[in-house]
Amino acid sequence: MWDFEQCDRRRCSGRKLVRFGLTKLLRLNEGFGGVVLSPTASVVLSPANDRELMVNGGLAVVDCSWAQLENTAFRKLKYKHGRLLPYLIAANPVKYGQPFQLSCVEALAAGLYIIGEPDQAIELLDKFSWGHSFLALNEQLLDAYSKCSSSSDVLSVQGEFMDEPNESQKSLASQSYSDIYAQLDKELTDRDDSESTSSECQSRISSPEFNSENAIVDATCKYIFCSKFGYVAVLTLCSCTTSGDLSATDLSDLQRPSCIQRILDKQVATMVDQFNRVKLIYEAGKNWDRFYNRNGTRFFKDRHWTTREFSDLLQLCCPHAHSQVNVDISCGTNSLSILEVGCGVGNFLLPLLEEFVLRKDADSKSQEDRPICAPPLVFACDISERAVRIVRERVLSVSPCLLCTAFVCDVSQPGSLQHALIQAQSGSNVTEMDLVTLIFVLSALNPPDMITCLKNVASVLKPGGRLLFRDYGLHDYAQLRFGRGTRLLAELPSYARQDGTLSYFFEVNELKSMLTESGLETVHCEYVHRRTSNVAERLSVQRVFLQAVAIRPADS
């Protein structure tokens, strides 16, 4: 490997392979007699013609930044057999979903696979937690390329794939992980406008026994499992005609194939050691601070779907709307009080406040004789001081008239929420809320601390007040993507991400039991199933979320 040192050494996949002794670092003036994978080459890699060259001379890549190709001195490199890789999709976190723009390890693995050395390709990718995703995204293409006899055959396969008529593929752009989550938000917002011929199937089921006879699904699914490390992918072009909800059986068949258990077994066999597990839990607050210092408001997208998913929130934004919500709120001097636990940078709260401001302005211009409603009492807390500061700034940018009391609180500590809520208020002393939200928050806690968090929430709810909950469901695609050294506990689906933050995947009965133990009464608790399509490779993955509403009993 030649390294032009245009990338961060700590994140360079090629440098990591050098540290593992799986590749050699070449000097810029050092010659190489084997096959060189270079973006400036004019000949496409051929399995038949280049295998002997690779066996005798080896395989090399050029490590440089894709953004600096024009300024890279490729002429300094000494080699004769430069080769281009055909169309493939990147799976590394920086360029995920981008065609052609592979990292060093992806390029080496692709070259080895096409030449006929898939085991060596797997050995390289096995050093990266996302490595299996590269094979999952490109398995069909790699197999097709490896069977070609010449460069022209490789180009023909590439052309057939790129020219294949696929309307759903044409309508999508390359996506990063955050883009996929943003697309989910948009799909929730546009749910009422979606057509029955959409390539996305969605369903909400309240129990495994739920059944629907009105769903017709036409999908070709392929699950892939590698003996070196487990992974699952659904390579499919799905067309759905839905006149009702998708049945639980259909979703179970798609989301729980037999290979999933092997993936989970592999995760359990390579768990995080006890020292690092304790360290991750102890440094949870610091890790979230680092996360928001690094990403600010750029990572998570604002959630504009919440009023559609939770009718309780309509009372906050549209007090005059006809709703079946039992929250006691009326116009005049009374104000609805809402607390967002784990507010982050306000991705849930800000869209609500913006909608309230818009509706208030519309009502003031309306000719209808309506009473003036008091603005909501808004509270927000997070374990990250950086996130809390960002929320305060963003609320002021929405409207200087809106007041939001944002404060730091570690809800994993007993009694912390009620105490922090009182300490954060200078004038009024609001100690009980009409609504509390937990949106993708409980999964970020250590499992033993989840009950403590829910008890904290129950302590600040009014009798009859509601908790609105949404989080990851068991066997969500995000859970299956976790690789080696990420699982924290053998008996529970608790994981650690690369940035040190935690993740958990819930079951319906498990969450119901936790709500009951914390003193809350479950109004409803259900899975939300979604199928999300990913760009050029026709990858369709199952997303599983858990959504619930709980109430504090009036006699508690």
CATH topology label of the largest domain: Rossmann fold
CATH hierarchy: architecture of the largest domain? 3-Layer(aba) Sandwich
Biggest β-sheet: strands ordered side by side in the sheet: 5-15-16-12-11-8-9-10
Number of helices: 20
- State the total count of DSSP E strands: 16
**Gyration radius over CA:** 26 Å
Oligomer: single chain
Estimated share of beta-strand residues: 15-25%
- How would you describe the shape? elongated
CATH class of the largest domain: Alpha Beta
What is the name of the CATH superfamily of the largest domain?
Answer: Vaccinia Virus protein VP39
Whole-number mean pLDDT: 73
C-alpha end-to-end distance: 67 Å
Function: Aminocarboxypropyltransferase that catalyzes the aminocarboxypropyl transfer on pseudouridine in 18S rRNA. It constitutes the last step in biosynthesis of the hypermodified N1-methyl-N3-(3-amino-3-carboxypropyl) pseudouridine (m1acp3-Psi).
GO molecular function: methyltransferase activity; rRNA small subunit aminocarboxypropyltransferase activity; S-adenosyl-L-methionine binding
Domain RNase L inhibitor RLI-like possible metal-binding: 1-29
Catalytic activity: an N(1)-methylpseudouridine in rRNA + S-adenosyl-L-methionine = N(1)-methyl-N(3)-[(3S)-3-amino-3-carboxypropyl]pseudouridine in rRNA + S-methyl-5'-thioadenosine + H(+)
